[in-house]
Amino acid sequence: MIPLRDDIPSHTTPLVNYLVIALCSLAFLAQQSSSDQSEGIVASYAMIPLRLTDPGVTPVIETQAQVRTPRGIEVVNVRKEMGPSAVPPWVTLITCMFLHGGWMHFLGNMWFLYIFGDNVEDRLGHFGFATLYLGTGIVAGLAHLASDPSSPIPTLGASGAIAGVMGAYAFLYPHARVLAVLPLFVFFTTFVVPAPIFLGIWFAIQIFSGISSGAGGVAWWAHAGGFAAGIIAAVIIGRLPMGHGPVVERRF
């Protein structure tokens, strides 16, 4: 399911949400324009669990490369050492939030943030939203670290922090609805679903995927951890004297 929009209008301009989208966009464009196809940026600023749990070890990953042999082009496994981090390893829990692994990863994350972030910032205020975003992003990174502490694979993306925003949205707007599209092969169908159900299904998918796939190539437990942290943070921050007043719904 892909959200198209919700039925909760914002009363304030989501400056922090726009700033995060802008920073992620600039970082992604820097990755795309890098001469080493972003590998240097990823090695320098992505979060690698092994760096945090065993700083004295140089992470080594196995990749595949095409090489020309007498028998033609063959795909071989190549061991590659990750370069040093440009910042202290624990700081990469923050820097990794602004990097992405490809266009679909980047566009999907920014769209979800655009849909749900403005309303959360509306309720929590600019400072409260910034605190929630960075805080849940760090918790998400720690959840992934706990799930695979010896992994040498770089972890990057705003998904964990955005999951925190989605968890906060589910708590703050229990009566909201989402207009979503469901791709069915070459057909697309749209429908309206209560936001807690939409987000609850998304959360359940993260849990199920984390259990069934193990470590894998997607940080499922970062998503789940960020979502849970977002709910908790919304409960705490939402009680502080910040943000906007009552919710006014709009109709589709």
From TrEMBL:
Parts of the chain that traverse the membrane: 12-30, 90-115, 127-147, 153-172, 184-208, 220-242
Superkingdom: Bacteria
Family classification: Belongs to the peptidase S54 family.
Keyword Transmembrane set for record: yes
Higher taxonomy: Bacteria, Pseudomonadati, Planctomycetota, Planctomycetia, Pirellulales
Location, primary (coarse class): membrane
Keywords recorded for this protein, A-Z: Hydrolase, Membrane, Transmembrane, Transmembrane helix
A Pfam match: Rhomboid
Protein name listed in UniProt: Rhomboid family protein
Membrane topology: Multi-pass membrane protein
Organism: Neorhodopirellula lusitana
Annotated compartments: Membrane
SUPFAM superfamilies: Rhomboid-like (SSF144091)
